[in-house]
Design brief:
Largest sheet: 10 strands, mixed
Distance between the termini: 46 Å
Strand order of the largest sheet: 5-6-4-3-7-1-8-15-2-16
CATH topology of the largest domain: Alkaline Phosphatase, subunit A
Structural class: alpha/beta
Number of strands: 16
Oligomer: single chain
Shape: globular
Helix content: 25-40%
CATH architecture of the largest domain: 3-Layer(aba) Sandwich
């Protein structure tokens, strides 16, 4: 018995010793799927399998990571968080009020982000997104502002951070809305020593730039500030995969002993969910997974030195798999070729080309081409009648067209109706167009990933990462 006790003590001591000498991860990836709840992940896997003509799931890459958990997302002011408070929680490990960026609930005390902690530690830092770089989630990693809507003031804080890499669609409010004589954000950023790079092709030609801000090509002429939805993307458009590749390329230096910290936000998952656009959401989630696989390939080359953590700031839309008939028909959504916003642009072009004299035949042809209606996606008499009646209201009446509004878009009513119909055919439902208080998923792989299991609070996630990586406030 005494000998067994001695062996037990030796085993504990050996385990403690091993823990003490274990090296912290040198390279940390932090992926945030904005609006990506558990159902968004699960439904995308069902969608991919149904597109193959089979039942079951085709797993997303990150959903197969060995360590999984769930997190609560409530803010410091509400059970239902917004992206500012959610982003701040994931960035700083502190709860704050909805609408507040990088501050405590008193709206005065700055909260230090894990990105800043990593930078102070000596790591190179990147903050990237598929939306605007001064949007709520990315700005939570470098800014401190009472209101998420103060885009210009948030943008001014970007170069102050000193982080080595930023990327996104563009910057919102390049000019100060309250002072037209104030310098433009891009000018301020360039004067601070950053190189503004427009498009991935231009980035690949870049030589010897210490600090970079990568935005989409022709950002000023783009339809929106964010990079295009994956479902709407054309050749040459900046993608989240390219952003991730560029970030790794810029931040990685095997001679740099402290490594890097990189945050990547899949921001347009949230946009699609606010718009209640399932097809766009599925492809945004796939696109997010593709970006994560870029990091995973890096991990496979540096398995003992890399940690990858994936989560979300909240769920959007209250997305539901099924409408009560014990069936799903997600495969119908493969015939949707554009987002709700993308189809609105097609309708707007028809209005322009015909001087607002669009015929039902033209609308019907556009619906066939972009949603597969009548051909591959059969419509009920009720749905066809609803589309025709909406056409009459929107194109033949004297009244002003009442646009369909979501948080980020104003869409043609016939576009909104078409998406609503194909979602119903697919047997999905959206009870809301805003955020919910549902659990969000957590996935992890790499050095320290075993810490991200079970139920946790969202503020636990950055603190776990900081502890594992050796960052200190």
């Amino acid at each position: 018995m005494k000998r067994q006790r001695v062996y037990s003590f030796l085993l504990i001591a050996l385990c403690l010793c091993t823990t003490c000498i274990a090296k912290a991860p040198k390279y940390v990836f932090y992926f945030i799927g904005d609006g990506m709840g558990l159902n968004q992940v699960m439904s995308t896997q069902y969608y991919l399998k149904q597109c193959e003509g089979e039942l079951g799931i085709t797993p997303l890459g990150f959903a197969q990571f060995p360590y999984t958990g769930i997190a609560t997302s409530y803010s410091g002011s509400s059970d239902v968080t917004d992206s500012a408070a959610g982003g701040t929680a994931l960035a700083t490990g502190c709860k704050t009020a909805n609408g507040v960026i990088g501050m405590l609930t008193d709206k005065q005390t700055p909260a230090i982000s894990i990105a800043q902690m990593a930078h102070d530690y000596g790591a190179r830092v990147g903050v990237t997104t598929s939306v605007t770089i001064n949007h709520a989630t990315p700005s939570s990693f470098y800014a401190h502002q009472k209101s998420r809507n103060d885009y210009y003031e948030i943008g001014l804080q970007l170069p102050v951070s000193g982080f080595e890499f930023f990327a996104g669609g563009s910057l919102a409010e390049n000019t100060n809305p309250d002072d037209k004589s104030a310098p433009k954000l891009y000018d301020v950023i360039e004067e601070a020593g950053y190189t503004i790079v427009r498009g991935y092709d231009e980035y690949q030609k870049l030589v010897d730039a210490d600090k970079v801000v990568l935005i989409q090509k022709d950002a000023a002429a783009a339809k929106e500030d964010a990079i295009p939805y994956a479902i709407d993307a054309r050749e040459g458009d900046l993608t989240l995969e390219q952003i991730t590749e560029a970030a790794i390329d810029h931040l990685y230096d095997k001679r740099h002993k402290k490594g890097f910290f990189l945050m990547v936000e899949g921001g347009k998952i949230d946009y699609a969910c606010h718009a209640n656009d399932a097809a766009a959401m599925f492809l945004e989630t796939v696109n997010f997974d593709n970006a994560i696989q870029i990091a995973y390939e890096f991990y496979k080359q540096h398995p003992k030195e890399t940690l990858i953590v994936i989560t979300a700031d909240h769920e959007t839309g209250g997305f539901t798999l099924g409408t009560g008939s014990y069936a799903l028909n997600f495969s119908a959504l493969q015939y949707q070729k554009v987002s709700k916003a993308g189809f609105s642009r097609i309708i707007n072009q028809l209005r322009h080309d015909t001087k607002d004299n669009v015929s039902w035949e033209q609308i019907k042809a556009a619906l066939k081409e972009n949603f597969g209606f009548w051909d591959t996606v059969k419509l009920s008499e009720r749905d066809e009648k609803a589309l025709y009646e909406e056409y009459q209201r929107s194109f033949t009446g004297d009244k002003k067209v009442q646009m369909a509004e979501s948080l980020y878009f104003r869409d043609e009513p016939i576009s909104a109706l078409a998406v609503k119909i194909i979602d119903r055919i697919a047997m999905v439902s959206w009870p809301i167009t805003s955020h919910s208080a549902a659990y969000v998923p957590v996935f992890a792989v790499g050095n320290g990933a075993e810490q991200f299991v079970g139920q946790m609070n969202n503020i636990d996630i950055p603190m776990k990462i900081a502890k594992i990586a050796g960052y200190k406030k």
